Amino acid sequence: MLSVINSGAMLLLRRCRGLTLLSTRRLPVAPAVASCAVRLRSSSAEDQGSYQRAHRPGWRHAVAGLLAGTGAVLAYGLHQHKAEQEAAYPIFSQEEVTSHRSLQDGVWVTYKGGVYDITEFVAMHPGGDKILLAAGGALEPFWALYAVHNQEHVLEMLSEYKVGELNAEDLKKQKTMQTLDPYSSDPERHPVLRINNLKPFNAEPPPEILSDSFITPSAFFFKRNHLPVPQVDPATYLLQVEGLPGGLLTLSLEELKTRFPKHTVTATLQCAGNRRSEMNAVKQVKGLNWGIAAISNATWSGARLRDVLLAAGYGPDVARRAGHVQFEGLDKDVTGTTYGASIPLNKAVSEEGDVLLAYEMNGADLPADHGYPVRVVVPGVVGARNVKWLGKIIVSADESSSHWQQNDYKGFSPGTDWDTVNFKSAPAIQELPVQSAITAPADGAVVDRSSEELTVKGYAWSGGGREVVRVDVSLDGGKTWQVAQIRSSEKGQAPEGTPPTGRAWAWKLWEITAPLPPGAKELKIVCKAVDNSYNMQPDTVAPIWNLRGVLSNAWHRVNVKIREDEREE
Amino acid sequence: MLSVINSGAMLLLRRCRGLTLLSTRRLPVAPAVASCAVRLRSSSAEDQGSYQRAHRPGWRHAVAGLLAGTGAVLAYGLHQHKAEQEAAYPIFSQEEVTSHRSLQDGVWVTYKGGVYDITEFVAMHPGGDKILLAAGGALEPFWALYAVHNQEHVLEMLSEYKVGELNAEDLKKQKTMQTLDPYSSDPERHPVLRINNLKPFNAEPPPEILSDSFITPSAFFFKRNHLPVPQVDPATYLLQVEGLPGGLLTLSLEELKTRFPKHTVTATLQCAGNRRSEMNAVKQVKGLNWGIAAISNATWSGARLRDVLLAAGYGPDVARRAGHVQFEGLDKDVTGTTYGASIPLNKAVSEEGDVLLAYEMNGADLPADHGYPVRVVVPGVVGARNVKWLGKIIVSADESSSHWQQNDYKGFSPGTDWDTVNFKSAPAIQELPVQSAITAPADGAVVDRSSEELTVKGYAWSGGGREVVRVDVSLDGGKTWQVAQIRSSEKGQAPEGTPPTGRAWAWKLWEITAPLPPGAKELKIVCKAVDNSYNMQPDTVAPIWNLRGVLSNAWHRVNVKIREDEREE
């Protein structure tokens, strides 16, 4: 029978430990299959895109194939279960629900007056153990935070675990207690942004906007939030600095601005997941489906982290015992866990590292989405370490223990899957590799033959302050190459000059105008950049594919059709 | 008629300005064609491999094709010229020869008693204008230095320009005057080395030796000399340091060893041309035909350059006016030009740059081939900047003006050729990109099916102190990948531990043992490394091909045949 299962479904089956149990209690086979499939795409509550993608045709086909393939056994299970579901449910008090808060006692939750025993589901939850935080209580505040749950098929999955109903009095209490949508105070955003996820807000500008401006206007700068935007009162804001011989240093916003010289750096930030959609096209990965615009360039002003650490007592003795500077954001989830990350100490204290505690972006106060009132800007380093709404700095022997430092934002071999991955085996992403992409024309665009030539535009950048020194462009899929014109300033303005070695923090915009090749019906446009360590982009996506879909920096490819003139048709 | 010329010959014709003259004097068409073809492969007197390669079948075919293609006109020219050559030659005095020392007066040289008017050849000389240094005198001392000339076809080319003979008395004087072979005092070398060029000496160890030892024994360490090995007396050796507020600092070897702390660094050096042979396989490049072993790893001890610069008065004010530290070797050519290079000032003075003025290699005095008594070791930076037989250090606003810094060791687009190249447009190579190669098995090896498994071994390294964090190995040409075991120490010894961020100067050796895939008749083994900036190696050679054949770091590929057991045959 198994031979009729398609290979995708085989993969799902093989990887889902839950299925091997074939539960004898309530046979929740359908949700187990569904959640296993989801789990392949997501294993983190912070990853808001994973449930969403489950709605796509690809996902539906996979599950359909799986169900079709497993055949009669599953069909029987589903039938039997349906029959059970129609029975009347017992009534429970909140107290009874709350007594089920562990795998031993069972894990019960409530949702809109229903009581659910989700004990069996815990191991299969895409967000991992975090589900236990909801044990004994209402799901609503969690689902408000992790908005990915607000989808029909998640409700369907939940319904399979229903064991009773909450009594009317306790339900009324719950309703008045339930918190508001934690995202309700998120700021307004510009409608031009392409939204990858609404809660938390993740969005990128249209690519053609990117290459029109060396400095990305703040409203168009890509947004990558992991949690709700916190409301921070600048008058009472306090930044804490820990782990240095001077003891705890606490700085108000005013002190940060007045006690330390204001330093300005033009730096490009890039999300580790930029261009993830190209990895998804090879094989589904876990994460938001970013296009090519999860990268932007801004001018940042603030105190240098180095200066603040020196004020807090940093000295060579510290370097001998500590290796990392941890940052904690003021953005937090329902459990109070804040966003966190760390960077190597030598980057933080280097005179040439240019790490800022920034309070201005493009000459104005930081916008709420970009970390108001204070964020870290770590030039040359992946966006995820540029912690926004900065609350605390800790100098430590250890990296940040946060989920995002330890079990996310790391690169793996294309042969590593969610069953074999060992997050300890890979370093946390810091400096990013060389990158470039074509912002115009768009893939699938049509060019008239009468226009005779074509202008191709894009961006290029490399991590670690390595300057992009050349961008090669091909119109024939990589057989022949031309060198693009590069600029490192706003159009019409004089270039900023060559940055000091190792401090090229800003991207380059490039363009090339080439005649349309006679006879060609299609152009396969490719770009690749070279940085001043002469690192090149890999040719293709599949050999750098990784389960988290990060570090997607293969040659960028755009296909364009040439339309012959009407008179020639 | 031109339509019968093959495309290679077309290229040669189009690029050779000399041919467009179709000289009316002595119709030296054959040598013009020949030298143009050579010029395509070489444009530098320092490049000793170029004339040698002219002997290969590929070259002979190109010229044969060219001559066949140009047909009757050339055939007539050759015939006429041959007739002229058989006439008796006039006798000249050395004084008459010496009066021809410019393009205006004609450029005459002598060789073994013959007098040659090479005026027309000057523009076509693969080594450029340097040929004018020989004007009016004997070729022998130059050809002793640039041993690439000692080949039959070079003599054939010269013979076409013969205009007379030197009188007997002057010939006798010349013979007694002529210098000895400048390479006669080069040291003995280990016979295991694979010699790419004898004078100057360039050789690499067999690959399988490389991966047997984390520290490469000095005798096996690849040798890359640009000029004869100078004889330096350690008792009178003086190192000069210029360009700092303290004025000229002069240090004896003893002072270098005693005035500054001894610092030890394990660092891998790699020639910019390592793996050039793979680029040659795509399309001929200019340069020595290195295999995969122009890379080695040693322990170096010496004074830190930073400490010496501080002693010579380096301070923050210097950083504002200077940007480079230039090095001059004591090795020089017949014109007195020394080898030279420079590195960025911030690398030189950084506490974390670890740049050494090394006087020990692997615990002993530097060997003659590696720069005795003092060389620069610039960890993470291309071999060419690690100047040997160090004579002078100059802190300057400018890069070294040497040929090797300005017009060599730079990377270009695959579309750039010797007619379009602008050396000013590319930065001098400093940090090298991520690299790896398979040292065993060798390409073309045969494995017995009965051995059941195969061990693949190799090295991996990245420039700029970026640590290699993973090596992926494929046995099926890159379709599927496994992660290799990495070690960072001598086999059997404890690893040295994780180097500080940005200071991973030593390579990693790696290996993987995998079962022979059932049914496979051949394995297409591929390796690719990832450094901690997550830079990857490009997939293929052609898109990174460049006219100088440097920076060859595409995936390394080795094909192995599986021999079935006798009983199965």
UniProtKB/TrEMBL annotation, chains A, B:
The keyword ATP-binding does not apply. It is found in: Mitochondrion intermembrane space. One of its GO terms (biological process) is nervous system development. It catalyses: sulfite + O2 + H2O = sulfate + H2O2. Pathway: Sulfur metabolism; Energy metabolism; sulfur metabolism. It is an enzyme of class 1 (oxidoreductase). Its main location: mitochondrion. Keywords: Heme, Iron, Metal-binding, Mitochondrion, Molybdenum, Oxidoreductase. Its cofactor is heme b; Mo-molybdopterin. Residues 89-167 form the Cytochrome b5 heme-binding domain. The keyword Oxidoreductase applies. Catalyzes the oxidation of sulfite to sulfate, the terminal reaction in the oxidative degradation of sulfur-containing amino acids. This is Sulfite oxidase.
